[in-house]
Structures are given as C-alpha cells and as structure tokens.
Write a structure and sequence with these properties.
Shape: flat
Oligomer: single chain
Radius of gyration: 41 Å
CATH superfamily of the largest domain: Zinc/RING finger domain, C3HC4 (zinc finger)
CATH topology of the largest domain: Herpes Virus-1
Structural class: alpha+beta
CATH architecture of the largest domain: 2-Layer Sandwich
CATH class of the largest domain: Alpha Beta
Distance between the termini: 123 Å
Number of strands: 26
Length: 579
C-alpha cells in the first residue's frame, strides 16, 4: 500500500481558505468552537465537548497536580495531570499526563467533517495522484480516488477487497459509514473488544499486545455497554432533564408574576398617595423605594436560582444530546471508543446534587408582598401618614410550637398543640394562608399513621389536633411550605390510657363483703377460718385502706393490670363484693 493510502484514520479532508470562510459550512457539528474551523484530530473532553487536539493543547492550565502510580515517568517521577476549563461549559476537566493524544477521538465529528466536505461545491482532488478529480472513496483506507486510481486500487491484491463508494452516493446518503481503524496498525479495523483492558482492538492487537486477554467481537458486547449508556439517559437523566426544564419555566413565570405583583402594588400605592398633600406624596416615594428594594432582593434570589437551573440544564442537556447521538449515529466501534468518557460524564451528571423535585417548595413569586393602607407609618413633615409595604415571609427557624400535646399524650384521647409562624424578626405573622403539613407516624410501627387536623386561625397561628390509637413513641413532622420548622421532627410519647379501678377502696374484704368467705381482694391477705379474703391485722393485710380490684393503697391511682396481679397473687383475683 502506498504512503498516501496509509493515512491515519483521523486525517480530515482539506478545504481551501476561500471555501472555509465563504459561508458554505452549515453544519456546526463539523466545526471546532475554539478555532471556528473544521475539526482537525477531534478529541472528546471528559465533559463530552469536542475540540481539535491542538486547540486542547493551547488551553491555559487551570491547575496542575502530581501523583505517583502506573503513569509515573522515568526515575519514578510523579505523573503530572493538567486541569483546564472547557471553552464551552467552563467545567474543570483533566487532561491525561500523555496530553491531548490520551483523550478519546470523536469519530462522529470526523464523519461530520467528511460529509461537510462533500457538501461544498468545490471539487475534491485525488489523494493518490493529486491530479484528477476524485469520484470515489475507499472506506477502509479513507482516501479519495480519481477514476484511474480507483481502478488501480481495485487491481492491487491488498486493496481489492476494500469497499469503494461513489462520492455522489455518499453525498446523497447523508451519513458516512466508515470503519474505525487501529492507530497502531493502519488498515486494520477495530473489530474486537478487549474486556480486561476495556478497549476496542484490531486483529493484530489481539494476536500480539492482547494475546492473553479475553477479546470478543464488538457486536457481542455492544448491547451490554450500549445499554448502560441508554439506561443512564433514559432512566435517570432524561426525567431529570424534564424536571429541570419544568423548574426553569416555573422560575421564569415567577419572575413575571413577581414583576406583575410589584407593579400592581405600586399602582395601589400611587392611588392612595394622590389623596394626600405633599407630605403624603413624599411618603409615596418612600414606599416605592422600599418596594423596589424588596423587588431587587427577590429578583436577585430568583436570578441565582435561574442561573443554577440553566447551568444544570446545559450540562445534562449536552451530555444527553451527545449520548443519544452516539447511540443513534455511532457504529459499534465508535460507541465503544467513546464509552468510557461518556459513562463517566453521565454518571457524574446523574449523581449531581442539584436536582429539583416537584415536592420541593415553589420559587418565591412575590405573593408575600402586599400593601397595608391602614397601618400607621409615623409622621412625615409633621403630618401623620399611614400605609406600609408588608413583605414579611415565614422564617422556619423562628416558628414556635405551643402546647404539651406535642410531647406527651394518651391513646384514644385527642391531643392538641399550636404552631405559631413568625418572621425573621421573631414577630408573629399577622395573616394565615401558609401551607402547613403535619404528619404523625409511629416510630416502631411504620404502618401506624395518625391523621392530624390543621386549622388556620388567620392570625399566623395554626391549631393542630390528633387522636393516637396505640401507645408508644411517635415522630411528628411539622412542615411549612414543604420544609421542616425548627426542631421538626418532634418526638411524641403516647402513654396507655389510665385504667380506672373497678373495685372498692376499703379497709378489708371481710368488712366490705359482710363476712362472705368467698370474697377475695386484690391484696395477698388471708384470714383463718376458711375466709379467702383479707381482714384487719391478718397476714398479708396492707394495714390501711386499699383497692379491692388491685390492692393499691393509693386512692387516686391507676388500676394495676392483670399480669401484675397474677405475679403478686398466684391464686388469681376476684373483685370484692360491694356492699
């Protein structure tokens, strides 16, 4: 094979300077965003953005770190890893110690470059003789051939089996299907995949460098590795992309609503101020200035949230677009070549912490801003004025809980406590309407949930009531706008309902039963003469009045359960006959 036939797989077709800047380049996927020219040896950065190899080499280092390991160079010196900023997304990406050549080649970009070259009006020259106009292209050698060289190419024994396609057919097809060749053995296609090395290899590589490794045809492993990328895109990143779009739309709507609310409040302020003299007009300007400060503060908060959502949307959108294009347009070897960097980037995006969810609190749209025309505002220029801007919002760290019903309760009995919403100054809110959610769940029995009732008192306080059915420890979640107040979740200790005595508080069973021998008592006392109950000054008698049902000597007490009675009196228990 001639030297011109052994061109590297990454060599791009050349365009004249006139064509390169004449406006014919309509495909942005064939152009490097750094140099604004057709890709030359395109490399994929870890953030899945592609640039020319020399453009990557010209990026200013953001940081430089050293580490020892398998990539250490001579004399056991540590390998140097350079971190640069991606020109597209400003992400910090690491360049391998071997430089840009250690990055994965973007074969899809090479396809786009060649298709863009075919789409230009200028004729292509023959890559072998350099004289005649190219009419065909060898998809194995990646060279353009004139008619004479095409016939010679097919006559040679080593190239007779190569696939030669008509340039017009390739141009009409709109998609370049070419093999991915080995960089170590020119002319050898990457048809195998070395599983220990996680790399696509050619037949010669498998027979020499990877002869002791397990190598499989790419078609046997493409489904398994492609499904990993597809799963990250479909199951994790695509739903998150939709949530990001939805959240960004909500922020933009909130910005419009905020501005509309501010404008409406400003109109109310102006209408109120026109009824007053110059002092009231001055007060009007003061109110508008205060309102503007509130608007700027809320707008800045929304702007920051919008910027975070846009960046997350840009990152995930770029990763998803690249992965989907790789899976839909890439060959087996192309997918496997970019698999490593693609999976690392998609996994990093999938594990990112910024993930809005529908359960989170909605963005602040200014609904808490209101004008209170009857509120005294002091004196201005000697005149009493009224009207203030109310922009108080609930501060979750200042909210308080009142009532013992949040710490202790009885099963079967209704418990009560009150939530008081306060602003950042610790003052109670003067209006209701907050979204308050209370959940009472048994800590040991997860399926034991108590329904709580919340009543809005319209003065910043909320009355909560509940009725537990079982004793034990409960977790009480108190949330305002889907966020916990300070101290939530709280621990609620529900005691068993107080057992009432069923017997008589007496001195002895002999007296209370009128001398009946069968009468028994909750105390372990006995009497001689066949009496089974207790009597004055006899064995087991407590020596003072006690309950006949359980033997307790405390009149205002809870009745002991049967298990305690059995432990005290093995003979069992019968309630003393009441007289």
């Amino acid at each position: 094979m001639s030297q011109s036939e052994q061109k590297e797989n990454t060599e791009q077709p050349k365009l004249s300077s006139e064509n390169e800047h004449s406006g014919f380049l309509v495909n942005p996927r064939a152009v490097c965003n750094a140099c604004k020219r057709l890709y030359r040896d395109p490399k994929i950065l870890p953030c899945l953005h592609t640039f020319c190899s020399d453009c990557v080499g010209r990026l200013e280092p953001f940081s430089v770190s050293s580490r020892r390991g398998e990539e250490a160079v001579e004399e056991d010196r540590p390998a140097v890893t350079v971190t640069v900023l991606c020109p597209d997304c400003d992400s910090e990406v690491d360049i391998p110690p071997s430089g840009p050549e250690g990055l994965s080649t973007d074969h899809l970009a090479l396809d786009e470059v060649f298709l863009e070259t075919l789409a230009t009006d200028g004729p292509l020259g023959c890559d072998l003789c350099g004289e005649g106009g190219a009419e065909s292209r060898c998809e194995v050698c990646c060279v353009n051939l004139c008619e004479f060289c095409c016939q010679a190419h097919r006559r040679q024994k080593r190239t007779a089996s190569h696939s030669v396609q008509c340039l017009e057919e390739l141009k009409s097809r709109g998609r370049l299907c070419r093999p991915v060749l080995c960089s170590l053995h020119p002319g050898q296609e990457l048809r195998l995949f070395c599983q220990p090395c996680d790399l696509p290899v050619c037949l010669e590589c498998a027979a020499t460098l990877h002869r002791d490794h397990r190598c499989c045809p790419t078609r046997d492993v493409i489904d398994r590795h492609g499904d990993r990328i597809r799963e990250l895109v479909t199951v994790r990143l695509r739903p998150r992309l939709e949530r990001l779009k939805d959240s960004l739309q909500k922020v933009e709507v909130a910005q419009e609503t905020l501005q509309a609310r501010v404008d409406a409040t400003a109109n109310e302020v102006r209408a109120f101020a026109r009824a007053y003299a110059s002092a009231v007009e001055s007060h009007c300007l003061s109110l508008l200035h205060c309102l503007e400060d509130v608007r700027v503060q809320r707008r800045n908060q929304l702007h920051l949230q919008r910027a975070q959502l846009q960046q997350a949307l840009l990152d995930i959108g770029g990763g998803v677009e690249f992965a989907e294009r790789l899976l839909s347009c890439g060959s087996d070897a192309e997918i496997l070549s970019a698999k490593g960097v693609t999976l690392r980037r998609l996994t990093s995006l999938a594990e990112s912490s910024y993930d809005p969810h529908p359960a989170t609190a909605p963005p602040d749209d200014g609904s808490s801003i209101s004008f209170m025309p009857r509120e005294p505002a002091g004196d201005l220029e000697g005149y009493p004025v009224v009207g203030v801007i109310n922009s108080k919002t609930v501060d979750l760290s200042k909210c308080t809980i009142e009532g013992e019903g949040l710490q202790r309760g009885r099963d079967g009995q209704q418990g009560h406590f009150t939530l008081v919403c306060r602003d950042s100054a610790g003052e109670q809110m003067t209006r209701g309407g907050e979204q308050v959610l209370v959940s009472v769940v048994h800590k040991e029995k997860k399926n034991c949930t108590v329904e709580a009732t919340v009543v809005d008192n319209n003065d910043g306080s909320y009355s909560i009531s509940y009725t537990p059915e079982e004793p034990g420890a409960y977790s009480v979640w108190v949330c305002v706008k889907a966020q916990h107040v300070k101290g939530s979740p709280f621990i609620l200790d529900v005691k068993r309902k107080l057992r009432r005595h069923r017997g008589t508080f007496h001195c002895c069973s002999f007296c209370s039963s009128g001398g009946a021998k069968e009468a028994r008592c909750g105390c372990p006392g006995t009497m001689p003469g066949g009496f089974k109950g207790c009597g004055h000054s006899h064995k087991g008698h407590p020596g003072k009045p006690h309950w006949s049902c359980c033997g307790s000597t405390v009149e205002r007490s809870e009745c002991l359960p049967q298990s305690v009675l059995d432990a005290v009196s093995p003979r069992g228990h019968l309630r003393t006959v009441e007289l």
